[in-house]
UniProtKB/TrEMBL annotation:
SMART domains: UDG (SM00986), UreE_C (SM00987). It catalyses: Hydrolyzes single-stranded DNA or mismatched double-stranded DNA and polynucleotides, releasing free uracil. This is Uracil-DNA glycosylase. It comes from Christiangramia fulva. It comes from the Bacteria. One of its GO terms (cellular component) is cytoplasm.
Amino acid sequence: MNVRIDESWKKELNPEFEKDYFKNLIEFVKNEYSANTCFPPGKDIFAAFDHSSFDETKVVIIGQDPYHGVGQANGLCFSVKEDVSIPPSLVNIFKEIEQDLGKPYPKTGNLERWADQGVLLLNATLTVRAHQAGSHQNKGWEIFTDKVIEAVSRDKEHVVFMLWGGYAKKKSKLIDSSKHLILTSGHPSPLSANRGYWFGNKHFSKANEYLKNHGKKPIDW
């Protein structure tokens, strides 16, 4: 099974690539991409791993599904391609960073700049059919991405996990809280944020403080 993924991750995840569920998953994805419009583009399915190698990963942010609108998804959770309007959840993320760190609101929603600093922007499901949210859920992606979270928890130390919303919070059971920092809050979507479950969580300053305290370079959010 030839999966295009950064070599440092292959060492951690190679056993998964040989399992039946993963082979079935890849077959499903190939068929979906040949028969339908799907996102992100095939070359970007594993983009999160290519931008943030296993060795360099310092922060993990967990999303659920890629964006399913045309031209949005680029393989990183919450992120969109250059020149695409910034989605509502990401607007609220940027607003919180502005309040928390005093950083100006960015011109683009492309979060590659975070990923290249060691922020693993991991969706639980890595693909989706156009305009059909959740269409590739329960096909095997979640098994795989749970293994990714377990591998980071098991084989690294002092990583910050940001779990936003009920779905992401359930992943806390996969993480060893004795050697990592788990930050939880409501989801940044307008529905949650407007009810007071997102703004003021200060996750970005808390993450940087933790990284500095453990001898790691903070993230330029």
